[in-house]
Amino acid sequence: GIAVSQGAKLYIKQLNEEGGINGKQIEIVEYDDKGATADAVNAYERLKSDGVTAVIGAVLTNTTVAVADKTYEDNMPQITASATAASVTVLDPTDENSDIRTNVFRACFIDPFQGEKMAEYAQKLGATKCAVLYDSGNDYAKGVGDAFAAKCAELGIECTVEGYATGDKDFKAQLTNIQAFGAEYIMCPNYLEDVGLIVTQARQQGITAGFLGGDGWSGVSAYASAEDLEGSYFCSGYALGSNKEFEDAYAAEYGEAPKQMFEALGYDAALLMCDAIKGAEEQGLEAGTDEYKQAIIDTMKATDGLQGVTGSFTFDDQNNPIKTASILQLQGGQEVFVENF
Length: 341
Hints:
Blueprint: H1 2-17, H2 37-50, E1 55-56, H3 61-74, E2 78-80, E3 104-106, H4 111-124, E4 129-135, H5 139-155, E5 158-164, H6 172-181, E6 185-187, H7 192-204, E7 210-213, H8 226-229, E8 233-236, H9 244-254, H10 262-282, H11 290-301, E9 304-307, E10 312-314, E11 326-331, E12 334-340
Parallel strand pairs: 1-2, 2-3, 4-5, 4-6, 6-7, 7-8
Antiparallel strand pairs: 8-11, 9-10, 11-12
Helix pairs in contact: 1-10, 2-3, 4-5, 10-11
């Protein structure tokens, strides 16, 4: 949460130093939801009492959804930097006719987007046969993995899917099946400890296929050898080192450089919200009124190619950003930025 908060506050400080919006300074009111839904709702009620015009947050999916239930009722503009579940902006993602929370947006991409992007990247790498190996009890892993398999089918890439139970440490059976299938790349959209074990065991079994991953791979070099990880690709919402101006400004403000993608996503969430507030101000509306809030929402929805630190922003019909993903490759134990794709 601190990374997102500091990124957002950096943008707002820079904006205020440049004169703010329409000659007005942006005031930040901040509460810690402690990662708990009840605390998040209480924090939002306090923010309303404080007279806020818009909300940036929350950080986790469960707290963001809890707040979104309330902001939707109030038509309060809201953007999250980091909550990736489809349920943040769609009341029931399993129902194609479900209502959209028209007031809620996000700066990050959603879980299925990562799977689709990595399937497209596998095609770019020349893959004709891929495998997915994921924790079938983990919503994140399953969401990314299933989207990857579905996109492979659409692209004409043969794909086999292997699952395992949360807490499993031995993946020999699944890897044997993947080896027999002849996969050229293995999509492993899991958390770091599992990824390390899977990659290590695959190499021990003589599997030479390349590995692919999602944004959960950041920091994976601590969980498997550089040799075993060499050449693996994964996608992320931001690649450290890809925007020196932002990273230098962040380091100057906080005494240390950004450590992951969340600082940059927080910065972009603030940029998007403040750009939308400019739209309301340009209409001469009174801050805090229902008309003002609606103007913020309408301006955000109409965002078209706004350039942020993590990419260029346009929103789809479910208020998810249409943007590129950063592709990173493990080279000599280092996560090296390859391209925005």
